[in-house]
Amino acid sequence: MKETGFSHSQITRLYSHFHSLDKGENGALSREDFQRIPELAINPLGDRIINAFFPEGEDQVNFRGFMRTLAHFRPVEDNEKNKDPTSGEPLNSRANKLLFAFRLYDLDRDDKISRDELLQVLRMMVGVNISDEQLGSIADRTIQEADTNGDMSISFSEFTKVLEKVDVEQKMSIRFLH
Amino acid sequence: MPGYCAVLLQLNLLDYFSFCFQWATLRMERGAKEKNQHLYKPYSNGIIAKEPVSLEQEIQEMRRGGAEPEFDMSDIFYFCRRGVESIVDDEVTKRFTAEELESWNLLTRSNYNFHHISTRLTALWGVGVLIRYGILLPLRVTLAFTGVGLLVVLTSVVGLFPNGRIKNYLSDKVHLMCYRICVRALTAIITYHDSENKPKNGGICVANHTSPIDVIILASDGCYAMVGQVHGGLMGVIQRAMVKACPHIWFERSEVKDRHLVAKRLSDHVADESKLPILIFPEGTCINNTSVMMFKKGSFEIGCKVYPVAIKYDPRFGDAFWNSSKFGMVNYLLHMMSSWAIVCSVWYLPPMSRMEGEDAVQFANRVKAAIARKGGLADLLWDGGLKRGKVKEVFKEEQQKLYSKVLVGSSEDRSRS
């Protein structure tokens, strides 16, 4: 658990919450357990976020996996307290936060955001309120601005470049109380 | 010495209990520190600190300076963070499990730190178990049977009288007496506030719902007409007996679905001034007494006076919340009768009526806010039905609409410039 960087009391609280979500009481959460959270169910990207918790091809996530995913959202300042030079890049580094967001777009996990994938995610966010043509042009414009190597899709490095001025550390952090 | 005795006498039983519970928690903290471990502390401050920023604000902030594109790949961050925040700490799922306590009340069911208990503490807990299960429980069960038995027998007897003033008088007395016996059976210590606002005939009494005991608590202080579904078994026997003495409103299962029928029967009842005020719990399900959830608008459409009542339990002496997905009724009653006591406060609020231009939903929310304020509970818009059911798609569609407005709105600005 050290790799997640959470303090002992935070882990205890999160375990208690994990347990309360685990209606089947089998030590792991399924997709239905997540969908039972109303505020998540009404989030347009709810399903994509739930997906991020589950490793490729699995439908159960245990507590360790749960914590690893949540660890991406720890604020970066918290790392100052437990600096361990041998532990490698922490889960909540800027790069890892960006990777988390990138994977929300990259539906087939092929490390590229294609036009179709972008359109699908856009459609999730706007529902029925914007026409196909308008959405298509938004997608085209976005890819045009980001794509530097001309392959009509956005790779992770292009994604990172586009967002270099955005305060990712703050936007993708949750203040965990001690 | 006399001064010391005087102080001891003034502290009532509940204060002694509180003192014991706090001592128990301190012992556990000490035990934990000795082993260099941490005590599990309930998250009275929440696991995370959320920022109440709206979607529009957040997206505007994230737009990079300079030329304003319609869509930004970073827009996803808002939904992403909100989503993960709701996984860690949401407003709804925690309302359907028992409230967590600051200090341990010597009931195993509310303990999260089993391995920190010293021998002295275990001894105290053991004495507690003996008292609760050996003395209190049998006493209370006997009282409960007496109360229910008397209710069935006496209401049937009263039912033999011809309708009139004497029958009503006897029915009131019988109901009150039996409910008061049941209150004793639970050792419920109830404080009633503002009794001048007690519900009167021709009105509807609405209250927040935590457990079936709410009915006993309110009905032991006043006479109400109950509303409910017809049950079989023992409940059915009680229901049939009660309705002989005075008019209660019991619905067949099939009738419950028909909203017009339900509304008609309720309005007919309140129109008759000789009939008792109706007792309704508009949340429709038991909530854990930390919040008040959405009130169903049916009772607020009838157009009569509404008497709101707030019920707040003190969780330190016994948790009254009925988690019906986890425990059955018998299990729940056993829990209740083997706790130390049920301590609660009841506030009668002044009657409210629907105002001009207010629809049933707004009226319901107004009443709900008043009850939440008085009882010190969180006022939530979420539906208690979420305990078992899924949230409606329409809420997601609202979020999508909001975001689309932000996207399209900025393009309109651009075309203007």
Automatic annotation (TrEMBL), chain A:
Its main location: membrane. GO terms for biological process: protein transport. Keywords: Calcium, Cell membrane, Cytoplasm, Lipoprotein, Membrane, Metal-binding, Myristate, Nucleus, Phosphoprotein, Protein transport, Repeat, Transport. One of its GO terms (molecular function) is calcium ion binding. It is found in: Cell membrane; Cytoplasm; Nucleus. InterPro entries: Calcineurin_B_homologous, EF-hand-dom_pair, EF_Hand_1_Ca_BS, EF_hand_dom. Residues 93-128, 134-169 form the EF-hand domain. GO terms for cellular component: cytoplasm; nucleus; plasma membrane. Coiled coil: none annotated. Transmembrane segments: none annotated. Pfam families: EF-hand_7 (PF13499). Belongs to the calcineurin regulatory subunit family. CHP subfamily. This is Calcineurin B homologous protein 1-like. It comes from Carassius auratus (Goldfish). The gene is LOC113081230.
TrEMBL record, chain B:
GO terms for biological process: phospholipid biosynthetic process; triglyceride biosynthetic process. InterPro entries: LPCAT1-like, Plipid/glycerol_acylTrfase. It comes from the Eukaryota. Residues 203-314 form the Phospholipid/glycerol acyltransferase domain. It is found in: Membrane. Pathway: Phospholipid metabolism; Lipid metabolism. Residues 1-20 form the signal peptide. Its main location: membrane. The chain crosses the membrane at residues 141-161, 332-349. It holds the Pfam family Acyltransferase. GO terms for cellular component: endoplasmic reticulum; membrane. One of its GO terms (molecular function) is glycerol-3-phosphate O-acyltransferase activity. Keywords: Acyltransferase, Lipid biosynthesis, Lipid metabolism, Membrane, Phospholipid biosynthesis, Phospholipid metabolism, Signal, Transferase, Transmembrane, Transmembrane helix. Belongs to the 1-acyl-sn-glycerol-3-phosphate acyltransferase family. This is Glycerol-3-phosphate acyltransferase 4-like isoform X2. The lineage of its organism: Eukaryota, Metazoa, Chordata, Craniata, Vertebrata.
